[in-house]
Amino acid sequence: MDPGSMRFTESHEWVALDGDEATIGITDHAQSEMNDIIYVELPSVGARIGKGEVLAVLESVKAAEEVYSPVSGEVLAVNSDLDSAPEWINKDPFGDGWLARVRVDDPRSIRSLMAHAAYRKFLGEG
């Protein structure tokens, strides 16, 4: 996926919207801060998640980190490939390392999130 078309949170989650379906993951910055991710706890398909609620828990050799949902909605799918290969989050955070897909209650809500250029500036890169 192209980070240029995504929206970002200050807690380093990304969301890519396609209609009312959002794919969610963590940014390259977040995965590099965590180092080697060794375990992923994902939500249940069908679960309701609110914006700002814990969507997933990632464990690395350094620590466990919570991932917060940037949107409210129903979990449609989770990346079950991460059960056996959590390292995909480190290798490809914007692609094969995605965490969950959510049917968004209000697709317009992502407008409040940072565009890629604003996120890069937030990181001090832009």
Describe, in plain words, how this protein is organized in 3D.
This protein is mainly β. The two termini are about 20 Å apart. The protein has a single domain (about 5-105), classed as RNA polymerase II/Efflux pump adaptor protein, barrel-sandwich hybrid domain (OB fold (Dihydrolipoamide Acetyltransferase, E2P)). About 35% of the residues are buried. The strands form 2 sheets. The chain has a 7-stranded antiparallel beta sheet with strand order 5-8-9-3-2-1-10. It has 3 helices and 10 strands; from the N terminus they run βββαβββββαββα.
Which tags fit this structure?
126 residues, mainly beta, OB fold (Dihydrolipoamide Acetyltransferase, E2P), three-stranded antiparallel sheet, globular
Provide the β-strand percentage band. 35-45%
Q: In DSSP terms, counting alpha (H) and pi (I) runs of 4 or more, how many helices?
A: 3
Tell me about the largest β-sheet: 7 strands, antiparallel
User: Which overall shape is indicated by the principal axes computed on the Cα atoms?
Assistant: globular
The Rg value, from CA coordinates, equals: 13 Å
Number of strands: 10
Number of domains: 1
* H-E order: EEEHEEEEEHEEH
End-to-end separation: 20 Å
Write the CATH architecture name. Beta Barrel
Considering the protein shown, what is the CATH homologous superfamily? Answer: RNA polymerase II/Efflux pump adaptor protein, barrel-sandwich hybrid domain
